[in-house]
C-alpha cells in the first residue's frame, strides 16, 4: 500500500465508547456467571449433608473463562457484536475480513484473563498482599489497552495478538 493512501477506511471507536460497551456487557455477563455457579453448587451438593457443599474454588473460578468464551464467542461469531457493542455501534472483525473465528474469540478473551492470573494467584497463594496482587493483575491489562495509543490502527494488544480490530459502525439512515 502506498504511503499516500490510508491503511483502512474504518473509523475506530473511542476508548470511552468501548468502555461503555464493556460496562453494558458486564451487566449481562455477571448474571450468567451467577446462574452458572448456582447450577454448579446445587448439582455438586451432597445428598447426605445438604447444608454442606464442598466445591473447590478452582471449579468456581474456572467458570469465568467458560462463561466469557461462550458469551462473547457466540455473539462475535454471529454478528461481530455483543449487545453492548450493538448499543454503542462497535463491531469486532478479523483483519482479513469475514467473520471472527472461534480461535480468534478464544485468544481475544484468554489473553487478558491469562495476564491477570499471576496477580490473582499471588494473592490466593499468599505470595503478595492485596495491593501488590491488584497491581500485578492491573498492569498487564493496562498494557493491553494502552497498546492502542501506540498502534497506528488504534488496536488493543489483544486485538493485535488475535488478528482482530474494533470498528465504529456507521449510523443507519
From TrEMBL:
Main location: membrane
Keywords: Cell membrane, Membrane, Transmembrane, Transmembrane helix
Chain ranges of the RDD domain: 13-162
Gene Ontology CC entries for this record: plasma membrane
Compartments it resides in: Cell membrane
Protein topology in the membrane: Multi-pass membrane protein
Transcription as UniProt keyword: no
Highest taxon of the lineage: Bacteria
Stretches that traverse the bilayer: 21-46, 58-76, 97-120, 132-150
Record PANTHER family: PROLINE-RICH ANTIGEN HOMOLOG-RELATED (PTHR36115), RDD DOMAIN-CONTAINING PROTEIN (PTHR36115:SF10)
Protein name: RDD domain-containing protein
Organism in which the protein naturally occurs: Luminiphilus syltensis NOR5-1B
Lineage, broadest ranks: Bacteria, Pseudomonadati, Pseudomonadota, Gammaproteobacteria, Cellvibrionales
